Structures are given as C-alpha cells and as structure tokens.
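In the lab's daily routine, each protein ends up as an entry in a very long ledger. A line of letters takes care of the sequence, but it says nothing directly about the fold. The three-dimensional part falls to structure tokens, numbers that each stand for a local backbone shape. The outcome of that step, for a single protein, is printed below.
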Amino acid sequence: MLSNIKIKICGQNNPAIINHCLDLNINYQGLIFYKKSPRFIDTETLAILNQYFKSFRSRFVGVFVNPTIDEIKSKLTIFDFDTIQLHGEESQDFINEVKNNFKKRYTNLFLLKILR
C-alpha cells in the first residue's frame, strides 16, 4: 500500500537541494511561479535548472496562481517541466485552454498533508 504514495516537495529554487531530492528519489518537485511567494523562482534560476536538470523534467511541476497563457508559455520555453499545477481561481474555460495549448499533465489539486 505504501508503494502508491507519491511525494512532492514544493517551492524548490535551490539547485543543490533539488539535486539532493533527486538523489532521495522524491517523485515531484514544485517550481513556484507566483511572484508574491517567498519561494518564487525567477527566470535566471529557472534557466540554471534547465541546464542541470533537463533530463529529469518529468519530475518537475510548474505551480501557477491565476496566470495568463503567455506566462505559462514563457516558463515552458525556458524549462519544459512535465506538469502544470493551477493553484488560483482559474475558470474551467481557462483550465481547458491550458490543457489544449500545452499537452502536459495537469492538476489543480495536489495536496500533501503533513501530520505533526
């Protein structure tokens, strides 16, 4: 039963930590593209990640909050991550547009509960 558990570490913006998570076989790593987040990943860092982790693209999730199609497209031209996560108040029409434009895996609900 535990073999079905998938782990996502969100807010990755440090290449050394990303590399360590890959070594630990973490399933997914979230890249946050919401400028108000303290874990926001800028274009320069995203380009560095592409340089070092392109072969692991299937392990990366682009996390967006109320983006435009152009915002998503601009990030994907820098680093072709595998999954798009929408975490805002996107309409179903917008979600359909994302699915049709990008042919990526998509999620708008990706919860990880940590028990303390």
Observations:
- The longest strand covers residues 28-32.
